[in-house]
Amino acid sequence: MRTRIGALVLAAAAGLFGCDTPSDEACASPQVVRVMDAQGDVYRCTASEDCPRSSRVSLCVTDTSSFEECIRCQDTQCVRIIPETC
Fold first, then answer.
1. At CB < 8 A and 24+ separation, what contacts does 48-55 make?
2. What pLDDT shows up at residue 83?
3. What single string gives the DSSP state of each residue in the chain?
4. 1 with 8: CB under 8 angstroms?
5. What is the pTM of this model?
6. What pLDDT sits at residue 63?
7. How many angstroms separate the CA atoms of 4 and 28, rounded?
8. Residues 50, 78: contact at Cβ < 8 Å?
9. Do 78 and 45 contact (CB within 8 A), yes or no?
10. Which of 35, 43, 44, 86 has its CA 20 to 30 A from that of 8?
């Protein structure tokens, strides 16, 4: 009986976090898109705070995947991290 309850709890948790489950093959990796200026050049940075962003987009605070879009400084270039989709 305990095994069934444990399995049910794990299945429910996997359903809540859909994209983070390793067995879900329908999920794609986060997309990394360079942030470009009006002339088509990539914005350069030394820290994530240097990158332009709207008030709705946050700074990436960790290297782990996120459920929300964020901006990061990666290899001196500003990039937008678009979360994985299922």
1. 48/72, 48/73, 50/78, 51/78, 52/78
2. 86
3. -HHHHHHHHHHHHHHHTGGG-TT-TTPPPPEEEE-B-TTSPBPB-SSGGGS---TT-EEP-SSS--SS-EEEEETTEEEEEEPP--
4. no
5. 0.62
6. 67
7. 30
8. yes
9. yes
10. 86
| The two structure tokens encoding residue 63 | 């290297």
Q: Which residue has the tokens 């305990």?
A: 2
Q: For every one of its 86 residues, what pLDDT tens digit does the chain have, with 9 covering 90 and above?
A: 444 444 444 444 444 444 444 444 456 688 999 999 999 999 999 999 999 998 888 998 876 666 789 999 999 999 999 987 66
**Tokens 């359903």 sit on residue:** 15
Report CA-CA distances (Å) from 77 to 12, 23, 37, 46.
Answer: 39, 33, 12, 8
Residue with structure tokens 């008030």? 55
